[in-house]
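FAQ: What does a ligand-bound record look like?

Like this one, built around magnesium ion:
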Amino acid sequence: MEHEKPVWSPETIREALKLYAVTDNAWLGERTLAECVEAALAGGATFVQLRDKHASADELRAEAAELLALCRAAGVPFVVNDDVECALAVGADGVHVGQDDMACERARALLGPDAIVGVSTQTVEQARAAEAAGADYLGVGGVAGTATKPEAGVLSPDEFRAIAAAVDIPIVAIGGVNAETMPLLAELDVDGAAVVSAIFAADDIEAATRELSRIIDETL
Ligand SMILES: Cc1ncc(COP(=O)(O)OP(=O)(O)O)c(N)n1
Ligand SMILES: Cc1nc(C(=O)O)sc1CCOP(=O)(O)O
Ligand SMILES: [Mg+2]
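The answer part, i.e. the structure of the complex:
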């Protein structure tokens, strides 16, 4: 069944960031990407980002179209990592861009005022610039080191809080967030947790997501 494209208000975006699932095909095994995302949604993921650094343009579009349909059915926002063209082509809710990706202003101009544009920031300066450029939310990290992206840095609690204090848009913490580290988010002034391996590397993705959902509800 076709679902109409929703318009996500700032308040619904803030709420939806609570348990943000970022996909990773490295952990698929015998499973399809759609099965994995369906399980994450069933377990309570509140936001989904397709992140596939190895797909061709056509493969990424096919994945995005499939995940978009699942997210629409679940009433959950769906964004594409890095690739604005793909997001536009499939009618995704938006994109997530980093400091080395398309500039936030350009992504906003291409996707329009109703799209969700998330921006990765590691400093107060970057956070203020992203907000001024029209970002809807910030991805800030890491909370702890992670094998998913070994080159990613780790921020101190004070650095998280300084970024949160510098902007009015919501913040999702990313990098090394799992059932053990998630309670640390209580001290970081963030609105949610973005999680890759603690969801998608699990044998039982639905159960792992449900447990993370329980913990984040207790934490924030
Ligand atoms: C929610 C969220 N936050 C941060 C990132 C990292 O984005 P980026 O710095 O562009 O790195 P890559 O993901 O492209 O490797 C993210 N993807 N999602
Ligand atoms: C995609 C990404 N960005 C990061 C950042 O710090 O900007 S950390 C990261 C990977 C997070 O994976 P996991 O949940 O498995 O630790
Ligand atoms: Mg990127």
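Follow-up question: can I read anything off the structure? Yes, for example: The CA atoms of residues 79 and 92 lie 6 Å apart.
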